[in-house]
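Hey,

Quick one before I head out. I ran the complex with flavin mononucleotide overnight. Inputs first:
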Amino acid sequence: MLDCNSKHGGDMKFMVIGGSHRQNSRSSRIARHIQKLLRDEDAVRHVDLLDLADSKLAFWDEGEVQEIWHQLSERLVAADGFVFVVPEWHGMVPPKMKNLLLYAGNREFAHKPCLIVSVSSGVNGVYPVVELKSASAKNNHLVFIPNHVIIRKAEQVLEAIEGNSNADNYLSKRLDYSLNMLKEYSLALKPLRHCAFMSPQQYPYGM
Ligand SMILES: Cc1cc2nc3c(=O)[nH]c(=O)nc-3n(C[C@H](O)[C@H](O)[C@H](O)COP(=O)(O)O)c2cc1C
């Protein structure tokens, strides 16, 4: 068995995106926790955090692109991989998250890995995973990794995380495993982005 790539170093940058509209939402608290976990990992240089609750990005229309998008775009371009922490709202991904996906395209996302972490205060949370995996990467060529993490009963989980108890051991292990997988995909996909054949220019709108 070969060693994992990240054992041999790396210089990875990630962005964790909290997809809720609510201030200090459970999704943003979990996003902050994931930012800390990733920061502590070997071979990770920087972990940016984007909380969409604070974002002033207007809903997309055909008018002039706002300066705020140009700034945000550069932050997305800088990342080698993403974690989308998305709440389930009426069985859907919130509009600000979908709005970001309308703005961002190949320049920001093509051939970069993404881990989906969905958040439910109850016992659901499947729908954001299904929605994102089935219908949000056709044009931008974002690569959702095979694992996802669903955080159910999110308040209880957060109490355990923020209180440093090991009550959420089951979930912590899954999260650690999935973040490690994200790191490996990130290293593995990086060279692909410099391969001429992989350029999205030929089919910018996917298949
Ligand atoms: C508008 C709205 C719709 C919601 N719909 C669902 C739902 O369909 N399924 C679910 O499990 N939780 C639902 N919830 C509860 C969220 O799971 C809960 O707010 C959780 O904390 C994640 O959202 P947050 O990140 O905004 O805190 C809903 C919450 C809001 C505000």
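The chain has seven helices and five strands.

Talk tomorrow,
K.
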